[in-house]
Amino acid sequence: MSKRSPLRLLATAVLAGALAATAHALPGAAAPGARDHRWAGTTGEYAAASQSSVPAPPRPAKLVPSERVVTTGQVKLRAADSWGSLLSSLRTALTGLTAANPTTTTTAATKTSTGAGAPGANPSTKTLVLYDNTGPYGWLGEDYGMMATNLVSHFGAWTAHPVGGYTAGELANYSAVVYVGSTYDEPIPAAFLDDVLATSKPVVWMYDNIWQLTARSADFATKYGYTWKGFDVSSVARVNYKGTALTRDARNAGGIMDYAIYDAAKAVGVGEAVRADGTKFPWGVKSGNLTYLGEIPFSYITSNDRYLAFSDLLFDALAPQTAARHRALVRIEDVGPDADPAELRAVADYLSSRNVPFTVAVYSRYRDPKGVNNNGKAEDYTLRQRPLVVSALKYMQSKGGTLLMHGYTHQLDALNNPYDGVSANDFEFFRAHVDANDAVIYDGPVKNDSAANVTARVTAARAEFLVAGLKQPTIFEPPHYAASALDYKTITSLFGVRYDRGLYFPGVLSGGTVDNGVAHMVGQFFPYTVRDVYGSTVVPENIGNIEPEPFNQHPAVLPADLVANAKANLAVRDGVASFFYHPYLGTSYLQQTVEGIQGLGYTFVAASAMS
Length: 611
Description:
This protein is α/β, with parallel strands linked by helices. Helices cover 24% and strands 23% of the residues. The chain has 14 helices and 29 strands. β25 (530-531) and β26 (537-540) form a beta hairpin. α9 (341-353) runs parallel beside α10 (387-398). The longest helix has 17 residues, at 451-467. Keywords: Signal.
């Protein structure tokens, strides 16, 4: 049996890196990968995901925006109020930091999309998600909109569309609204601004265009007890949230809005943005029903990122009575016909001894078409041809294990995709290569990408489970997590439940032509169960995996790293710490990780408890 490569890190990284598409900065994209399977859940994996050089939106056109309502062809200046002179002098002092307005184009509002809540969500909770879609980075607004809808699905049903399509009174039909302001001076309908100012329902507003809301109110500072000051572009690598220090990638160059809080009885800071010199300012502000975040927390995210603070803040808006609960999951990864039965049994015995239920990710056909691991002689065999492996899988089931389908061959034909064509090393539903800098780069969907291709592979895998005498899996995990939008939708129709981190593409949410290219895709992990924009229930994996050796520009990841990630995830009041593990690593690392997570107060549960 070959030693597997840490490609999983790659997948996780892709997702994360893809996520790294930030409102004012997007990373280039290299994914991890080596000669093992899987990617690790480390921070580096997240910075590598967008797979191609994506131009980042610039930092704000003005660090101190003009307070106005932006419409098609005209602006409406705010009437003077009691705070006018204070704001004017403050903004004048900062005018030397301003930049010219960029040229933008406006696209027509696209169709409205809707989605159901995740299993266990409140059937009466409905969230309206609004996002920007104008200018050269309009695609990024939709990406952020998808990420927001994915998260709010945990709490209930959702409706999403560009903010430009908002109609007067629309908010009255929902429990709350989330607005993602990613385009500087996006034309926002006055009806939306007025409804936000008038409603008592929870409003979560992120980043840009808060100046349009304040411009529509003659007494915003008096009513809410604070107002915005301007974008602070200091290097901020940490956000403190409810006693937890969360990371923030310093590449986020778009700045964080700073505030002037006048009435502490009305306005309270949400988290603390910590500058490089140790000084702090509020990461966001909450006053009454309005929560405003000074940035978009979807960029450059990692397992211990301030994204977790936003994931928790949604409870305040959508499920404020939720009690604290911390559950954990473990998935045994890349188990195929070539697995070592003794390793599988040892893992099962240990987890059973700790009363830990677990999931086993199984691909049913092993292929090495070039004989990489067999002296140049090709190998191709299935589970039924390895009865000792099948026996070990049944033993794992008797010890609390549940099998999921992890693709069919976990590789693609005889291609280096990206390594050597060997099962568990390569992608099955997406193309990738290793570049000259030893980074795995995502290339896009496979050549014959289609619903028929996915269905044929799933059907073949199901047949192998059947003839091997194993129960049909009801959960699917795409190899290395990567697939096209069409593939994810097909998987949803065949299973309904995935256990992974997904890739998301512009066009999926807006109903337009789906852009399956890697330039604008994003990836996302979840700290709780969601029903994503493909309609699939997603069991979360969010803290990564063990990789004892560095590879493809990614550092080693050890048990202490995963335990630290789990500790950061305690910031989410009803969140999980979910990791995966390769059985060829033995049980020592597994023991350290499981017991370290249990020591934080987490209780391990089966994937079925999440879906």
